Amino acid sequence: MFVENSRRYAVFEGKHFDVTKEEIRLVLAILLLSGYNVQARNRMYWDTGIDTYHPGVANAISRSRFEQILRFMHVSDNAALDVQDKFTKVRPLWEKLNEKWMKYWPQYNEVSIDESMIPYYGHHSTKQHIHGKPIRFGFKCWCMSTRLGYLIQAIPYQGASTGNTNPDLGTIRANRVENAPLESIADIKKKQRGSYDQIIDETSGVSLVRYNDNNVVTVASTCEGVSPVGSAQRWSSAERKKISIQQPFCVQMYNQYMGGVDRLDQNIGCYRISINKKKWYWQLLMWPLNASMNNAFQLYRLSPAGQEKGHLDFLAFIRSVVTTYLRRYASARSLGRPMKPSRKRRVPDDVRLDGADHLIISSATQIRCAECHKNTTKKCRKCDVGCHTNCFEIFHS
Question: Which residues belong to any copy of the PiggyBac transposable element-derived protein domain (predicted)?
Answer without folding.
Answer: 6-165, 169-297
